[in-house]
From TrEMBL:
This is Geranylgeranyl transferase type-2 subunit alpha. Keywords: Prenyltransferase, Repeat, Transferase. Pfam families: PPTA. Belongs to the protein prenyltransferase subunit alpha family. The keyword Repeat applies. One of its GO terms (molecular function) is Rab geranylgeranyltransferase activity. It comes from Asterophora parasitica.
């Protein structure tokens, strides 16, 4: 960097640095060989799970180890666990992957594992006759929506985050209303009229309101479920065009 004086390291310091890096590499290779060997031998123990945690902290893109971790859960740990214990494992993995995402927000395999966790959250803590049988699911999905909203606060145009948001909304135990999602996209568009991802999301929500699933064969736009919605959207777009006539996003 300009204006920053470089500090020359002594030969001894450079050698010490090389030795430290070499030790880290050797430790990583030994850990990798250990985990791969356990996977080959179908080790589904708690020790194996713990070692996958260590390895994935170092290399979160090691998708084979993510797969192995899920196998340990499904075939080794979950069959001998209560729903409460399974939910604890799931919650712990959601927490640990959230920490990993802060350092590696674009690593697909972390997001993929979060999906798996959400989809494998057990029913509970209530039952069909008492309490809420979907309580844990609701909690985890609601938290995930909060996570993706934080992502979009940081980068409102992140189309990967918008895609993930659609996945979360479609999978939630308690569905969010289309109108509440319209309000969310309105806020994003008002903050930045050129947010094409927000416009795309809005178009999908408008379509679902105008044409519910049982009306998928409708060809005439004016025969939608609620023509007033269409009129109000056209009016809103016209207002935006009047305010910013040079904008191409609307």
């Amino acid at each position: 960097m300009h204006g920053v004086r470089r500090v020359r390291q002594s030969q001894q310091a450079l050698e010490a640095k090389k030795l430290k890096e070499k030790a880290k590499i050797e430790e990583y290779l030994a850990l990798t060989n250990d985990v791969i060997s356990r996977r080959k031998n179908k080790d589904l123990s708690q020790d194996a799970l713990r070692l996958t945690s260590r390895l994935l902290q170092v290399n979160p893109e090691f998708y084979t180890i993510w797969n192995y971790r899920r196998t340990i859960f499904l075939d080794g740990i979950f069959p001998n666990s209560s729903p409460e214990e399974i939910n604890t494992y799931i919650s712990d993995d959601l927490s640990s992957t959230m920490t990993a995402l802060k350092a590696h927000p674009k690593v697909y395999w972390i997001w993929n594992h979060r999906r798996w966790c959400l989809e494998n959250t057990p029913h509970g803590p209530g039952s069909e006759t008492e309490g809420d049988p979907n309580g844990w699911k609701k909690t985890n999905w609601d938290k995930e929506l909060y996570v993706v909203e934080k992502m979009l606060d940081i980068d409102p145009r992140n189309f990967h985050a918008w895609n993930y948001r659609r996945y979360v909304l479609a999978s939630m135990a308690v569905k969010r209303s289309e109108k509440s999602e319209l309000a969310y996209t309105s806020r994003k568009i008002e903050a930045n009229i050129s947010n094409f991802s927000a416009w795309h999301q809005r178009s999908k929500e408008r379509a679902s309101l105008l044409f519910p699933p049982n009306d998928v064969e409708v060809n005439d736009v004016c025969s939608g479920e609620d023509p007033e919605l269409l009129k109000s959207e056209i009016s809103a777009i016209q207002e935006l065009l009047d305010e910013q006539p040079d904008s191409k996003c609307a």
